[in-house]
Amino acid sequence: MRKIVKRYHPPGTPPGTLLPAAEGAAPARIRLLEYTAERCKEIAVESLDDCLPYLKTPAATWIHIQGAPSPAMLKQLGQKFGLHPLALEDVQNTGQRPKFDPHPEHYFLIAALPRSADNEIHIDQVSIFLGPGFLVTFTSNGEDPFEPIRKRLHAESSLIRGYPVGYLLYAVLDLVIDAGFPVLEKLGEEIEHLEEAVLDSPSRDTVTTIHHLRRNLLVLRRMLWPQRDLVSAILREENNLIDEHTRLYLRDCHDHAIQVMDLLENYRDMITSLMDIYLSSLSYRMNDVMRTLTVIATIFMPLTFIAGLYGMNFGNGNPAASPLAMPELNWYFGYPLALGIMVAVAGAMGLYFRRKGWF
């Protein structure tokens, strides 16, 4: 079970075109947070115009927009912050692979935020603009996953407040990448339970669950694999937006991205092994059934021969018949004797097969 909300511009649309918000999309909500090494303050704003005065102060500014921004809001954002139109278009095109686009005056990033809710895996797009003294983030689903970072900013001993705004970018990326661990942990528990089901009582529901988990892992791999390259690209970029101190933490973030992918690859191998075990189990059960049927058919072969032989009734009731034409048909104990022979043959063959371990 998985859910990725995707939206793309129609083919042939001019680059940089901004479309109206999709029907049913959550309305955009703006949250502004301003901080220095000494203080942190969250400011209630209604529009981007309310945010502009804070960009002229020496404090770092974090603007978070959750929900679907309107074309007018994105255009205003691009004009006031000097953001590239193609990057603004990508904010609307949700469901994209993570990427890093450096521009002369700012960075633009797209990250994939996995989360588990209602027994489904959701992957939300996080769009990020980093510029001199400001960070602008977007979340596509109308929810705000960055409350833990806000709590850290409000803490008196916050490390984030002691460094330039590039460190805030690291904190956001670290949260997004580490969000993959609890999602994969839950998938790992499902795989363990599935492994027990495959070994104990495999069924059609089992193979259906295997395919669902395999698809989930494929989707996660497609969306989370590029995040390792995303962090690598930031580290390779020579720009004063990221200081050397922050680069050390970004390397740790890169290590976390590798760990997520290693865990993901391990689970993919486990799912493949479970499928092999399931098929082997089916084959073993089929062979077991065929062996049992073969033993039963083999036991009945001599019995069928005896019954067929004496069922020909040559000379039965005919005084002129040849004395060689089954004289035992007229024996007084002929019928009990035939049954006894059949029981003895069946018992002997059954005992032989039992000692051989064939059933």
CATH superfamily of the largest domain: CorA soluble domain-like
Q: Return the domain count.
A: 2
- The number of E-state strands comes to 8
CATH architecture of the largest domain: 2-Layer Sandwich
Give the ordered list of helices and strands: EEEHEHHEEEEHHHHHH
Please, how many helices? Answer: 9
Q: What would you call the shape?
A: rod-shaped
The CATH class assignment of the largest domain is Alpha Beta
Helix content: 40-55%
**Rg result:** 37 Å
Mean pLDDT: 84
Q: Give the structural class.
A: alpha+beta
Might you state the CATH topology name of the largest domain?
Beta Polymerase, domain 2
Q: What share of the residues does DSSP label as strand, in percent? A: 15-25%
The description of the largest β-sheet is:
8 strands, mixed
Your description of this structure?
The protein has 359 residues and is α+β, with helices and mostly antiparallel strands. It is 53% helix and 15% strand. It has two domains: 280 residues, Beta Polymerase, domain 2; 71 residues, no CATH class. Strands 1, 2, 3, 4, 5, 6, 7 and 8 form an eight-stranded mixed sheet that branches. Helix 5 runs parallel beside helix 8. The mean pLDDT is 84.
List keywords for this structure.
53% helix; 8 strands; 359 residues; alpha+beta; Beta Polymerase, domain 2
Summed up:
The protein is built from 9 helices and 8 strands. The protein has helices at 52-55, 71-81, 85-92, 147-154, 165-178, 180-200, 204-236, 244-310, 334-356, and strands spanning 2-4, 29-35, 40-43, 60-66, 99-102, 107-117, 120-131, 134-139.
